[in-house]
């Protein structure tokens, strides 16, 4: 992990320390908006890229060099943990597909328990390769999917609009639901703590689909499992908790126990921070589509978010979700430069 005697502003901000400027990084920082990434993907499949440590290092480090961001995020996917469970993970044109969805207690019993230390060794090799390539320039963020989002993929079989199968399971068979969530928490903890052993400096937990839940359902069926997950992460590594569409859940997500709350663009940053409490750091939250505006407008919107922070330590600038594939690279760089200049 990064030497705390020369700690980078990103890690300092995670711990709510004062920084010389607001650190910034981006979700999907390594992605299709960059020609370099498209060139690499033209030669290998998505899964093969994830399983080739040197290529992972290359696509992770390139945006750091091009954009001057303050952290790298490991190139991987939240569903890699599900592949060794024997459910038939496939990356199709329309998105990830689970070929054998898990919808009953019997299906859950039949799942293979992955041994992340063995089946995901390519991820830890990629962490080591990426750290070597970064050579201490910026911290490296590892990540995982949150148990609810992973469970939803397993149950729905892919993306969903209404999450009918997922909600039906916890409403009709809460015992089976809790058994699935407990297994996912245990596997996820093995996975993220092995990432930490391999050298990540911070961890982001993506609960991409949790915004579909009513607060009472989150409280009953998700929060106890999230508390166990957060409590089991190796101490000393900052944890960012991120979801989309979570305006109605922020106070409950706070109870899970992360160091940083990541928020999307559907809530004003100052309102979100006041709701989760200023005793935790916050990350966000420019609308990704704002990057299609002219650079002057991007700079104005960056300034608006920074004004909402009011100079309070503990803010990490990010988009409210991932960069869209069509985004102009020079607009992304203009945003990063604006964050650094306006916050210095």
UniProtKB/TrEMBL annotation:
Keywords: Cytoplasm, Decarboxylase, Lyase, Porphyrin biosynthesis. One of its GO terms (molecular function) is uroporphyrinogen decarboxylase activity. Its EC number is 4.1.1.37. Its main location: cytoplasm. It is an enzyme of class 4 (lyase). Pfam families: URO-D (PF01208). PROSITE patterns: UROD_1, UROD_2. Pathway: Porphyrin-containing compound metabolism; protoporphyrin-IX biosynthesis; coproporphyrinogen-III from 5-aminolevulinate: step 4/4. InterPro entries: UROD/MetE-like_sf, Uroporphyrinogen_deCO2ase_HemE, Uroporphyrinogen_deCOase. Residues 23-32, 141-157 form the Uroporphyrinogen decarboxylase (URO-D) domain. GO terms for biological process: heme biosynthetic process. GO terms for cellular component: cytosol. It is found in: Cytoplasm, Cytosol. CDD domains: URO-D (cd00717). It catalyses: uroporphyrinogen III + 4 H(+) = coproporphyrinogen III + 4 CO2; uroporphyrinogen I + 4 H(+) = coproporphyrinogen I + 4 CO2. Homodimer. Catalyzes the sequential decarboxylation of the four acetate side chains of uroporphyrinogen to form coproporphyrinogen and participates in the fifth step in the heme biosynthetic pathway. Isomer I or isomer III of uroporphyrinogen may serve as substrate, but only coproporphyrinogen III can ultimately be converted to heme. In vitro also decarboxylates pentacarboxylate porphyrinogen I. NCBIfam families: hemE. Belongs to the uroporphyrinogen decarboxylase family. This is Uroporphyrinogen decarboxylase. It comes from Geodia barretti (Barrett's horny sponge). The lineage of its organism: Eukaryota, Metazoa, Porifera, Demospongiae, Heteroscleromorpha.
